[in-house]
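dumping this here before i forget
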Amino acid sequence: MNKKRLWLGILAVAMVVTGCAWNPERLRPNYYVLEYREGTENPALRMSRPFPKSLEVLDAEVSRAYSKSQLVVKENFSRVRYLPDHLWASRLNDAIPDMIVQRLRAYRIFSQVDRTTGEFDPDYFLETKILSLEKIEAEDARAYLRMEFFLRDSDSQKILLSYKAERYKPLPDPSMVYLIQSYNELLMNETDVFATKCRSFLSGGQDQVTLETVETAGQDLYTLDDIPPENMAGSDGELLLILGTDTDDLIRYNILGLDNDVFRNDGEFNKELTLPPGRYSVTIGESQNISLEVEVLPKMRTVVSGQWAELSVKIIDGKNNRVRLSYDIWVKETGKFEYYLLGPGTSIGDDDLGQPNKVWILPPGTYMVKLGGGSWTQLEDFTTIDLAKGDSRVLTLVVDPSGEGNMLLGAGVLGEEPVVLDRPVVHKGAMHGNLSLAGNNEADPAHPLVGITVTGQLENSVDATFPLTLYTLRSIYDLGLSSSNVSDLRISADAYSLKNVLLLTPWESSRSLRNFSFYARGDVQTRFFREYAYFSKLKDLILISAENDTVAVLTSQNRLKSKNPFFPMRLKEGTGITYRLVFGPQASLSLRFGYGWQQEVNDGFYKYSESKPGHNIDYAKTYDIYREQPNQTFHGLESTLVLSAVNIFNFIRVNSSLDLLFPLSLEDRSVRLENENRINFRIYRNISLDLRLNIQYDRSQKDWVVYNYGSYLRLSLFY
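structure:
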């Protein structure tokens, strides 16, 4: 009954979590409106005294392909796609003329501008045709408008003035709000051009306004976007700096008010910053050496992009595995040969799941990326790159991780070639070997003891990355052989460990929740060969099974088969929630909490118990009693800490894990603890020193802390 309640509780928690992760808002359509914004008006077009003419603006004629309520995306020259969840709140044939009326009224070109003049006939009719209003889907997405204006005389019905407009607008901000307000800006810009033509026509050519006056000041530096009504705060505006690189790296900038130099603030790239209207100086870059002047208008969003260069450094080995290495960036002084140090950085390795690669914000210029430290004058393990304004480059360096000084094999901007594309599945393997020779003559000067031990380790890892899913596999197999002039070849080490973790990341797009995920894990610890216990003198043995039955009585034995192949086998399973805490490019900590199960399968695993005279066998002999260990199963709440720190001081790597299980199935519910630690010191090329320390505590087995440690000088071969 308790188990049934437990599973019902787990199912209820899963349903609640699933319900929280599912967002019903995604099923609701989004409605958009075209609203008039006074902040986009051009004061140069405003007249002090209007012409004594009246104008009636008729309903717009919208091309059939664009007259639907859905927004339109053009995929290629002949194919369009309608967005079912993004709809116009009002028909375009009515919304666009309403905006034109408000713009022409603001400029006071006509004495009267209305959608209808009532009982009085107007002097002119304004007809508009919307031929295209769409988003062009491409690598550089754009908003596109094609429309026509016709000024018609109300008496003669003749067209007196016409204007055909066609204009694109880049979309550095991929949001739908920015797309809608790009449409707004395109429509109002073309209306401004038509307004200048009306002034020239009504004045008989005497009133000439240059088209340059119509263009928005600073258009080459930033663009204007509208703020959604729910985000409006009085008459404030917003500033948005957009990176050209797709990254989760947190990059900040400083801002200083020019109209009020007391105002100071800081912002974050790709995140809107609410500001009072006015002019501002924005300072960005690694050394805060890039300064931009922008203007924030009421209820408008100023979008800045492409006014700097962006550089990401990606370091891989010859098999396209990401490698975590330190590097330095040097910048060349203008007009000189010398470089000066800009700053250090560290690349991201395949093990750094969820950690963003660093994006350098730089002014245009020539830069050197150097591995291994030292001055640029050493001219080794380096490459250079030229960056222009608006560039967003990924510089790939190919290295030999096992070479001295991380020897650079090649470098360059490889674009979208398959060699630099991130693979969904990455495998890495290594073979480590250790050979030791020892001897002594303490026992017999004439017959010294000479022994040789060979230890090998096979290490493999697999990292698979898919949408909302991460899978990692780690396996380590240790095998040791030893022999001496007084003993046969023996297996001195035989241990296999396999760890699997599956992560579900439903919140990877959320900045505040992306480090949380659900996990499911399965671990195995086993062996592949028989193990014998060797005795220095002949012994008499009694083997007792886990059911307390006598299995065998052995006399005059010099060894005992104490373990069968594959046993003892230890299994671990668990599921729950995890949080990954990233301390920096070189260290991370994963915290897990959930429900876990553990099994110990001990078939044929015998351990020494005691020595006593042979009861009912032979009272004259003393027998060593070996008992078969029973199989055990545990379940309860589990907590795991996994620490990873690599490339410390360029030669130290630390991996540590701490498993805690709080049993719910035993009378003795004391915590079960397992701690595995491994520290590797790289000495030279493929030679390193490996230190290991394992700690266990299980009061149901032993009432003390059990530990084992060892050190190995090893030679590694990577594959």
